[in-house]
Amino acid sequence: MSLTTTEPAAPKKPSIVVTAGAIAVLSLLGLGGGWFVGNTLLVPASPAAATPVPAPAELAAAAVEGAHGAPAAGGEHGAAGAAAPSLIALDPIVTNLGYPTDKWIRLELALQFTGPGDTSLAQDLHQEMLTYLRTVSLQQLQGPRGFQYLRDDLREIVDLRSKGRVSKVLFRTFVIE
């Protein structure tokens, strides 16, 4: 009589096909979730996403006419003898951003003075705005809110420096590359 002993069967390992399938499904779920979050939360930072700010036709004509300190359209003296507001177009501001430093910004502005234009003040304001733009990061400029914050910051710089002699800061072009 022989005694045969049977050993209990070892637990079966999952097959390689099942493991590879599970990894593939989890990877696809991760990719899909990342794509969804990226498209819904993040604003694209490509040059194609940079939105130029169009100016109305009469603003463009007034900016060209007032480019050299000449009064804007209808620049005759009023009935009280006060000088009409003048529009001075600043030289384009082209500089790299504070972060990332490989991104560039081009900004063309015009300043509307309450009285006769002051070209030396306009050049000082140009330098102040250039210095400010070198400290701005790309994330601060993204989206409509970022553009609004930029407008507000530049307006504040102009108000502080000009002491009320500049009534408006007009954007002619705004490009981030």
From TrEMBL:
GO cellular component terms given for this protein: bacterial-type flagellum basal body; plasma membrane
Localization (cell): Cell inner membrane; Cell membrane
Keywords attached to this entry: Cell inner membrane, Cell membrane, Chemotaxis, Flagellar rotation, Membrane, Transmembrane, Transmembrane helix
Membrane topology, as annotated: Single-pass membrane protein
Residues that span the membrane, as ranges: 16-37
InterPro entries (UniProt xref): FliL
GO process annotations (BP): bacterial-type flagellum-dependent cell motility; chemotaxis
Pfam families in UniProt: FliL
Function: Controls the rotational direction of flagella during chemotaxis.
Family designation: Belongs to the FliL family.
Protein name stated in the entry: Flagellar protein FliL
Provenance organism: Agrobacterium bohemicum
